[in-house]
Amino acid sequence: MARLGARAKGLVRAGGEVLWPSRSLVSGARDIGQGALSPQEFAALNFIASPVCHTCGQPQEVDLGPLAQCGACLARPPKWDAARSALVYDEASRRIVLDLKRAGRRDGLSVMANWMVQAARPLLEETDLIVPVPLHYRRLASRGFNQSGWLAAGMARQTGLVLRVDILKRAKSTPSQGGMSPKARKRNVAGAFAVRHGKSAALEDRHVLLVDDVLTTGATLEACVRPLRKAGVRAVQVVTLARVVRARDASI
Ligand SMILES: [Zn+2]
Fold first, then answer.
1. Which domain range does residue 98 map to?
2. What does the mean pLDDT of the chain come to?
3. Cα of 76 from ligand 1 centre, angstroms
4. How far is the CA of 152 from the centre of ligand 1 (A)?
5. What's the CA-to-centroid distance between 186 and ligand 1, angstroms?
6. What separation in Å is there between the alpha carbon of 49 and the centre of ligand 1?
7. From the CA of 28, how far away is ligand 1's center (Å)?
8. pLDDT at 248 over 50
9. Fewer Cβ close by (within 10 Å): the C or N end of the chain?
10. What is the CATH classification number for the domain harbouring 93?
């Protein structure tokens, strides 16, 4: 992982101009210089780079080619076509994710979106629409923002791709999935998402890039794929800021 992480960091550094926040995305410390992260914090982040499983984005030890799949995907293919994530969800990235998700911290958004653009680069050529995973309207009203919508908007700004926040809706309010087993997560979000009335025409034969903050078991993202497919989407690809790589990190 360390070797692969170094390669990914090279790509991230070469990723172009981004607006850096004024304090560290990890520690919250101010006056850390020009970057969003101190050199030590940046070094601690585990960026995911090739080789990865083409279908789920899980880092792989051996490069078996660009379309190779991991054992889990061979045994049970996810409902989407391909997925990529920028970071391993671990101690180093947890603060970034939780500050965004729970505290609504926005000043690192362009940096995070840039990381996601780099991670999703192999998928972006085919993308017609960027669609964030929606929140239920009651959750949106109480939280005041949808962090996945922010990340999707950041990616759209940096790529020029079309952002559609009006396509999917969360029709069912579901409890937070923290601590749930993979089976319980799947049950929890089954039927939770739908394509909004009158929006199917915009989806027919299109390649959709679904955006979320963290990929844990994939249950939420898979629950979004079903209505998109029903509406005639040709392919669904997924990008997240971070993903759980080891099962013991599945506590978000
Ligand atoms: Zn896989």
1. 2-249
2. 86
3. 9
4. 23
5. 18
6. 14
7. 34
8. no
9. N
10. 3.40.50.2020
